Amino acid sequence: MWARTGTPFLLISGGATVALALLWAFRPWLPWLVPLGLAAFLLVLFLIFFRDPERAPGGGIVAAADGRVLGVTEEGDRLRIATFMNVTNVHVNRVPFPGYLVRVDDRGGPKKPAFSPDASGNSQKRYLFGTPLGLIEVVQITGMVARRCVAWKGAGSPCRKGERMGIIVFGSRVDVVLPRSRVRPVVRPGQKVRGGTDTLAEVLA
């Protein structure tokens, strides 16, 4: 399945491939242009950036993103679980727990490497969910390459666990912030997770 946000990139890369093929037809002394254009087309189409597979939600609080867990940290009464997405990961992000979307906020900032401890100050989009556990926050954080966070749901929308909520175009890091007294983390730094499927934390009774 293809994420709709990737359609413009597909059209641009596909058009560039056609244009380079025509140029090569009239300038055969540039044979490297067609493979170059085809490579760009395949990069966008197949290197996962906009792939959008179907997923069955797992138990507890599920991962909002595919990738590698960067950290599990306590921040007062909150627990933050950060996940870094590399170029081979699916970049569609998912709702970690059922509820409704209270609001979506944008915050500007620098574009430091997403795996850096300083990346929490980068340009980002914050989703605040009202849930039976209290407020849960999902933060899309851009990196050096990522340039755009895209929300697919608006304030007031009901949300199912594992439902698609947005995408980071060519990026980068997603944090899930939970009420610490209501959950127990089950992942550790370095562990790989799949968005919407793998459990980040168990819900405490």
Structure in words:
The protein is an alpha+beta fold and 205 residues long. It folds into 2 domains: 4-46; 61-203, Glucose Permease (Domain IIA) (Distorted Sandwich), CATH 2.70.70. It contains 2 helices and 14 strands. The chain has an 8-stranded antiparallel beta sheet, with no helix packed on it. A hairpin with a 2-residue loop joins strand 6 (124-131) and strand 7 (134-141). The longest helix is centred in the first third of the chain and has 20 residues, at 7-26. It starts with 6 loop residues before the first helix and ends with a strand. The model has no long low-confidence stretch (mean pLDDT 82).
Secondary structure tally: strands: 14
Please compute the radius of gyration using only Cα atoms: 19 Å
User: Any idea what the shape is?
Assistant: elongated
Helix content: 10-25%
Sheet bearing the most strands, described? Answer: 8 strands, antiparallel
CATH superfamily of the largest domain: Glucose Permease (Domain IIA)
Question: Which short descriptors sum up this protein?
Answer:
three-stranded antiparallel sheet, 37% strand, 205 residues, 2 helices, 2 domains, alpha+beta, elongated, Glucose Permease (Domain IIA)
SSE layout and pairing:
Elements (H helix, E strand, L loop, with lengths): L6 H20 L6 H14 L14 E2 L4 E9 L2 E7 L7 E3 L4 E9 L16 E8 L2 E8 L6 E4 L6 E2 L4 E6 L3 E7 L3 E3 L6 E2 L5 E5 L2
Antiparallel strand pairs: 1-14, 2-3, 2-13, 3-11, 4-10, 5-6, 5-9, 6-7, 7-11, 8-10, 12-14
Helix pairs in contact: 1-2
